[in-house]
Structure formats: C-alpha cells, structure tokens
Amino acid sequence: MEDLNNTFPTLLAISLTINAVLIGLALYGLSQIPKVMKSIIASMTRRRKDSWAASKLKSADIVFLGDSITHEGSWEEYFLDCQAVNRGISGDTVQGVIDRLPAVLALEPKKIFLMIGVNDLNNHLSIDKLKVAYEDLFDKLNKDAGNTEICLQSILPVKDKLHFGLGAKNKDILIINSFLKTQAENRGFTFIDTHSLFVNGQGVLRPELSNDGLHLCGQGYARWRDAISQSVQIDPI
After folding, report:
1. What 3-state DSSP class applies to 2?
2. Which candidate, 151, 150, 123, 163, places its Cα nearest to that of 224?
C-alpha cells in the first residue's frame, strides 16, 4: 500500500504532463489553421489567375465577379443566350477584387454581377474598414468601367455559427447590405437584393439551400439564376 501511495503522485504528474502536452499541441494546431487556409487560398488564386491568363477570350457580355459563392456557380451554363464568364475566386476579398479588376475590365463586359465581402467579415475585418475598402473598389469602377453596368448584389446570409472561427455574422451582413444599397443608389449601380432570396424567418441562411451554412447547393443557384435572369438580358444594339 505504501508503494502505491508513493507511486500515485508520480503517475498523476506524468498524466497531467501528457495532457498538458496534448492540449498544447491541439491549441498549436488550431492556431495554424488560419495560416494554412491563407496558403491554400493564395495557391488557388494563383491557379485561377494563371488559367485566365491562358484564355483566348477577348471580350464577354457578362462577368460574374466575386468569391467562392460566385466561383461555384456554373454561370456559362445558366445563361446560354449570352456570353457569360465566371471570375469568382474562392476566399477572395474586396481588396482581391480591386487587385484583379484591370483584367476583368479588359474583357469590356456589358454587365458585371458583383458579390463580394463575406470573406472580409469572415476574416474579422471591421465594418468601418470594410466600408473604406468598398468605397475604393467603387471609385475604381466609376472611374474605369463607365461603359459597364454594375449589378451590385447584396451579401447572402449565413448560419448562426460558422466553423473554423469564421467571423461573418448576420447582423453585420445586414449593416453592410444597407451600405451597399445606398452606395449603389449614389453611384448609379443596379442594386440586386440577393440576401432576401436566401434568408429564412430566423434571419439565417435557409438550411435547405446550403450544406455548410455559407455556400449554396444546386437549389440555391437555381433560385439565384431565376431571380437575376431578367437583369442578365443584354439589350440589342
């Protein structure tokens, strides 16, 4: 019994040490997730840009511009009566769109359908800083895209709690969408309330339209496609 009493504190100390090490490793692993995600997104962005650089396309009627929610849509197949191209990049932000805007405008599109901003919120950018970034983007569109109709789409709702520490919250999305609507009115853009297509009575993304609370499934894209079909039409010259 005395040997057991002497051994127990040692075993307890070893157990606590092992647990502390495991917890430390787990916390370290979690801390690396943002770095890993940034690396993945950066690699994907380079691949998308490289792919477009190899394109022989010189012009387009419609450009769909945005992040993963745009990226995952099959826009060329949704609208067969016009030349629609997809310029969405998963993980993209307002600044990312600013950086690649010259390549988009080089296509001389008649219309740009723009949805961007949820990743800025996911990355915990403050609302005030996000508004400044939007204004920079919109200034450039007003300056350099005078012959292009800008169809500014509101950010979609999300589920209440997103995974992996993503910071987008529905209350912030409502604030930003109100800002976007005002900006569109002041700048001569066409504002499209896509948010209302996907929100339920609890103010969150309809679960039947998404399998992760952020991105859309096929039924969601069908709803989006039908809602903007009239706006996509190109007036004959």
Report:
1. helix
2. 151
d(CA 59, CA 83): 9
Q: How far is CA 18 from the centre of its chain?
A: 40
Q: Which helix (H) or strand (E) holds 21?
A: helix 2-53
- Rounded to whole angstroms, the Cα distance separating 142 from 226 reads 28
Q: Which of 128-137, 159-168, 184-193 is predicted least confidently? A: 159-168
pLDDT band at 9 (very low <50, low <70, confident <90, very high): low
> Smallest Cα–Cα separation from 173: which of 235, 106, 125, 221?
125
Distances (CA, A) of 166 to 30, 69, 151, 175, 236: 13, 15, 27, 18, 44
In single-letter form, the type of residue at position 103 comes to A
Pull the structure tokens for residue 118: 């949820």
Give the whole-angstrom CA distance, residue 198 versus residue 203: 9
Which range in 46-55, 157-166, 200-209 is most confidently predicted, on average pLDDT?
A: 200-209
Q: Which residues contact 43 (CB under 8 A, 6 or more apart)?
A: none
Strand (E) positions, the chain?
Answer: 62-66, 84-88, 111-115, 149-153, 190-192
Cα–Cα dist 212/163, whole Å: 9
Q: Which residue has the higher pLDDT, 40 or 62?
A: 62
SS3 192: strand
Tokens of 1: 């019994």
pTM beyond 0.85: no
For the stretch 114-138, pLDDT in tens is 999 999 999 999 999 999 999 999 9
